[in-house]
Specification:
The complex is a heterodimer of chains A (426) and B (418). Chain A has 426 residues and is α+β, with helices and mostly antiparallel strands. Chain A has helices at residues 64-71, 81-86, 111-123, 129-147, 150-162, 176-179, 184-194, 210-221, 275-290, 295-302, 331-343, 349-366, 370-384, 391-397, 400-408, and strands at residues 2-6, 11-17, 23-28, 35-41, 49-51, 58-59, 91-96, 101-107, 200-206, 233-234, 247-252, 258-266, 308-316, 319-327, 414-422. Helices cover 44% and strands 22% of the residues of chain B. Classes of the chains: A alpha+beta (426), B alpha+beta (418).
Chain lengths: 426, 418
């Protein structure tokens, strides 16, 4: 077992890796009453084509990772997870994203039994024709729920316009048409390929005993074998830097127009090769340009240019994409202004120093919350392969000189823009 | 954890001293009996105070000041509590231990400046700042249907009892927004400071006497305020025949909202057995709704119930296929009937109690939820957390059945596709 300090937080990370490749990450916070535990696989909706035998590629219906997540709650014998966790007032949940599926359990009691059950129920799939069929109605309702939220529909559309080949262009839940085709055999294929110890990990944060957690993992995970010591062969897409559609205008059932704008960058084009450091600099740039204290936001407010905006960064293969979502009554003007700011970046040393202080304070504040801490460390593991324990010293070292190097390669060329207008009869 | 309450004349200061958190949270609450036509104004006012003040003219200046105070954040929120409208201003700030000596005091000063020293000249708020807030409010009000599940709930409450505060839209109304100007809003603001009941909460690892000193200096209010209006709405009998209302929008999935009236509960039943009733019936993955309507019949992805104690309501919400409406309502009826007949087990009860205990444990890990718990104790005389734990454990099956008999469906509202 390894013990490493989160620098500047007075909190420790414990790591235990088994021979089969399974890793348990633990962050004990003994002064808290609650805990959040997650058991996860590095398998999400981005994987729809793979060769389980490493030879014959097979394409599976979209949305299958999410469907599988729903079906893991089915048990052949004994109690189902909701009944089991209900007894100790523990909340059970799960989530699927593009690059992971996670099973979550939050509670305050019965840590050992609850952790054991989490590993056990995800380790025992039970799919039948009937229970697979039954789930289709539930998932169809889930997908329909999202289809009624314009923001969600547009997010999927901008991804389609951004990515040419990669499944990131498809919604995590898949299409209703596709999920209707899913069979129990498909589910077993995906399960046996991706729910293997060397593709999975567990993360526990909050009030629990480290020794107990390790003991449970040894008992439940040690004898689990990877069905093949090789990693499965997953289709690679070589997503190009060019977007699919450069511009689109459409009408929707909305009252106020929406603008979406995405910029695709190649990670390789930046001079900083440290993955995490590059991401921090990119975030620093957008926070200074578009964050709460940015001049852009203030001017947009004063001029009535927009009523709401958010943006995010996401990574796909060697690409990194910045996407803006804006509510505005002046779509063309907003787009013009956004591009003007992105093409004439002006950042001062003061801006950089101010955000260093803000970000360090935020790291400290975040450690007050078990769930937030779990979410952050979880996304580090997915994105960087391990928890980042030195974020505060990294932030301290940020400087204008290095930022300028990133800015020299911040090329806003591969962009896609979308304007959604209200339908006329509204 | 130590709770200290200080009567500072025209308001109470509540200090919750605990070393659990690295942050200090301050909540300043104003409340007064709700007036439908003033809801919009209230929302605009609280937003306006946080985007412009005498010292910090723009939202950007306010954001820069927040950042300078080690990423302190200020927020506002307007919510209805039964017959009252309540406005909270929050400050979330790191403890001086993690920043520098005097940072908390400066942050509290900052909060008080935002609330008490607005950007006003000649008895008028700054016009340009008000325009910004009004523009944002217009968009929010115009886009209300973009969250169809929430819109369904709003419409259900409006058709259930249009004259009661329970039907008031929390964000307000476009027609009221138009009437707001720099002058009448300032009159409303002065009136709020003069007549509203006010409470201040501070939670964190703080020195209580120092906090009292700072608050006394920075939050000066000398008026004497009192209101007798009860927080709970008056009880209304359920209509003799339930009403079923369908409205059309361009939707893929129908959004179902059901309003049930709750009558004649004792105070103890409302505090305890009602909570257990709703957990067993429709909250969470182990409820009757989840097990039967979702898992067994595959009729919904989400379906749940929540009690609204101040309004004497139980609200049920679900996303369904519109053709299944009758089937879903029938199943809901069956489950509620089963609750009345006592068709639930001792295990269901003990699981609901465990869930309640866990939610109290989790509440104790959140500064803002802890403040809210103390606020409700202050306002409604709700039992302290440890008493709640004990009393909840003692609730019997008969008491839950007794509650079940006092809950009846009043309005079934379905917002569906064309």
């Amino acid at each position: 077992m390894e013990k490493i300090e989160f620098e500047g937080l007075g909190i420790h990370l414990y790591e235990e890796t088994l021979e089969n490749g399974f890793t348990l990450y633990m962050i004990p916070l003994p002064e808290k009453k609650n805990y959040t535990m997650v058991y996860a696989t590095r398998y999400g909706s981005d994987i729809i084509e793979f060769a389980k035998d490493r030879k014959n590629m097979k394409k599976y219906p979209t949305g299958i990772a999410h469907f599988l997540e729903h079906k893991m709650f089915e048990q052949e014998e004994g109690e189902d997870p909701f009944t089991f966790y209900g007894k100790s007032g523990t909340d059970a949940n799960a989530a699927t994203d593009h690059d992971y599926t996670k099973y979550i359990c939050t509670g305050t009691k019965n840590f050992k039994e609850n952790f054991r059950f989490l590993l056990q129920y995800v380790n025992t799939p039970y799919f039948t024709d009937e229970n697979v069929e039954k789930e289709k109605g539930i998932i169809e309702e889930e997908l329909n729920m999202y289809l009624d939220i314009p923001e969600f529909v547009l997010e999927n559309k901008i991804k389609e316009n951004t990515y040419q080949k990669h499944p990131r262009r498809i919604d995590v839940g898949g299409t209703v048409e596709d999920i209707k085709k899913i069979t129990k055999e498909d589910l077993y294929d995906c399960y046996h390929t991706f729910y293997q110890p060397n593709n999975m990990f567990a993360l526990v944060v909050g009030n629990f005993d480290v020794e107990e957690a390790i003991q449970v993992v040894h008992e439940e995970m040690k004898d689990r074998k990877n069905c093949d010591n090789k990693k499965p062969l997953i289709k690679e897409y070589q997503e190009p830097l060019e977007v699919t559609v450069k511009e689109e205008t459409l009408t929707m059932d909305i009252r106020v127009p929406k603008v979406l704008f995405a910029v695709k960058f190649s990670k390789k084009s930046f001079p900083i090769k440290d993955h995490q450091l590059l991401n921090i600099y990119l975030q620093l740039i957008t926070t200074i340009l578009f964050g709460s204290s940015s001049i852009f936001r203030e001017e947009a407010r004063q001029n009535g240019l927009m009523s709401g905006m958010y943006y995010d960064w996401e990574e796909v293969e060697n690409m990194i994409t910045l996407t803006f979502h804006i509510d505005t009554k002046k779509p063309n003007e907003v787009l013009k202004e956004l591009k003007r700011v992105l093409l004439n970046i002006d950042i001062s040393v003061d801006d950089v120093e101010r955000y260093k202080k803000v970000w360090i304070a935020n790291e400290v504040r975040l450690s007050d919350y078990v769930e937030a801490m779990n979410n952050n460390v979880f996304s580090d593991i997915i994105l960087y392969g391990k928890p980042i324990v030195n974020r505060i010293p990294l932030i301290r070292k940020l400087n204008k000189k290095e930022l300028d190097k990133v800015l020299q390669h911040f090329e806003v060329e591969n962009t896609t823009e979308m304007i959604a207008l209200p339908k006329e009869n509204n | 954890m130590e709770y200290i309450k200080k009567d500072l004349g025209s308001y109470n200061l509540h200090i919750i001293k605990t070393d659990k958190f690295k942050s200090v949270v301050v909540q300043v609450s104003f409340r007064s009996p709700i007036v439908k036509e003033e809801i919009t104004m209230r929302n605009v006012l609280s937003d306006l105070l946080l985007i412009s003040s005498k010292k910090y003219k723009t939202k950007r200046e306010i954001a820069l000041k927040s950042q300078e105070l080690y990423a302190s954040s200020v927020m506002d929120e307007d919510i209805r509590f039964g017959n009252y409208i309540n406005t909270n201003f929050y400050l979330n700030c790191l403890n001086d231990k993690y920043t520098e000596e005097g940072n908390l005091e400066e942050a509290i000063t900052f909060l008080s400046e935002l609330i008490f020293s607005p950007n006003v000249e000649n008895n008028q708020f700054d016009k340009a700042s008000l325009e910004i807030v009004k523009r944002q409010a217009t968009v929010a009000l115009e886009s209300i249907k973009e969250d169809p599940a929430n819109y369904s709930l709003i419409r259900m409450l409006e058709t259930m009892d249009p004259s009661s505060p329970l039907s008031y839209r929390p964000m307000g109304y476009l027609e009221d927004l138009e009437k707001i100007d720099e002058s009448n809003l300032y009159v409303y603001y002065k009136n709020m400071l003069k007549t509203n009941l006010m409470d201040i909460f501070v939670i964190g690892d703080v020195d209580a006497s120092k906090i009292e000193e700072i608050i006394t200096e920075k939050f000066q209010s000398n008026t004497y305020k009192k209101t007798r209006k009860p927080y709970y709405l008056d009880e209304v009998k359920v209509r003799s025949k339930r009403q079923i209302i369908k409205e059309k929008e361009n939707l893929t999935q129908a959004k179902l909202s059901i309003g049930c009236r709750i009558n004649d509960l004792t105070e103890e039943e409302r505090a305890y057995a009602l909570t257990l009733y709703s957990i067993i019936l429709g909250s969470g993955g182990d409820s009757k709704f989840f097990k039967n309507i979702r898992e067994k019949h595959s009729l919904a992805y989400y379906i749940y119930s929540t009690p609204n104690k101040l309004d004497h309501l139980l609200i049920i919400r679900a996303g369904i296929t519109k053709e299944n409406l009758k089937k879903v309502v029938k199943l809901i009826d069956n489950e509620m009937q089963d609750m009345k007949k006592g068709n639930f087990t001792e295990e269901d009860i003990s699981k609901a109690k465990e869930l309640f205990q866990t939610s109290l444990d989790e509440l104790e890990e959140s500064p803002s939820r802890l403040i809210n718990a103390y606020y409700m104790m202050e306002l409604l005389g709700i039992d302290p957390i440890e008493v709640r734990r004990k009393k909840m454990d003692a609730v019997s099956k008969e008491e839950i059945i007794s509650v079940a008999k006092k809950i009846k469906i009043d309005t079934i509202y379905c917002l569906e596709g064309e």
